[in-house]
Predict the structure.
Amino acid sequence: MALESVHDLYVEHVRDLYSAEQQITEALPKMIAMATDPQLREGLTRHLEETRRQAGRLVTIAKGLDIEPEGKTCQGMKGLLDEGAEVLTEDADPAVRDTAIVSAGQRVEHYEISAYGSARTYARLLGRHADIEMLHTSISEEGGADKTLTMVGEQIIRSQVGPAA
Amino acid sequence: MALESVHDLYVEHVRDLYSAEQQITEALPKMIAMATDPQLREGLTRHLEETRRQAGRLVTIAKGLDIEPEGKTCQGMKGLLDEGAEVLTEDADPAVRDTAIVSAGQRVEHYEISAYGSARTYARLLGRHADIEMLHTSISEEGGADKTLTMVGEQIIRSQVGPAA
């Protein structure tokens, strides 16, 4: 695909993010199944619901742009989730694995905050006000998920792995 | 590799980050060669030097842990850089390509901020004070690189692509 305008870049980002959300929707249940900490499981389960709503927003945005959201594979998210899956297959202590799931989840959230942030910049340039609103909601949710993971991670570390030096 | 302790998790992160920095060291010259905006080229060139120093810090940390930093491939960074490379091969307007390079660079920085942040948490738990210091320096540099990219990206957009709505 040619990138001749901010519109092209925006379309590319929307399709990329849609693929990212689809991949996360597939990956999260496996992470939840392997997590042992109840708060971590709850946080990830809540984020799975958010992820579905975020994908729905991207479908709405794609409709407004008159494009198909499907058909692109977000290579960045694929790499992040492959990396996260490594942790699940490794022979691991439950609390250490939970800590590794938190860390993998945070890398996913950081990716999304960054990619949604770029998409919002392009939406602003293109004057797509309804899109800006939806993207902003998703960015806030990703930020919230990252904060939850930080908090849960600290608790797991404190209660099970050992005190911080 | 088994993940039985925070020490194992820390070793895994250090080797992962070393692989990430090596991959970035290879990818950045291609991005610099394709960038047209002088400030973007300068920012990426400066970050290439920082990346080499960051890899050096990880070698020092690995030496202290009595491990080899080499031998692992950071799948997360591989995905992010594959994604960034797509932009370079696509038929693109120079200013739009520069904007896409900024966006790809920011996703790389966000990954690193998140992964170095986890590593620093583990270093704290393990009481590795010299490592904490080095990781902190790298995190600050990654944060600075992200801010530079944001600033340069906004300038490119304002001056070449068009005003924000």
Summary: Chain B has a mean pLDDT of 93. Residues 22 and 55 of chain B are 7 Å apart (CA to CA). Chain B touches chain A through 55 residues (CB under 8 Å). DSSP finds five helices and no strands in chain B.
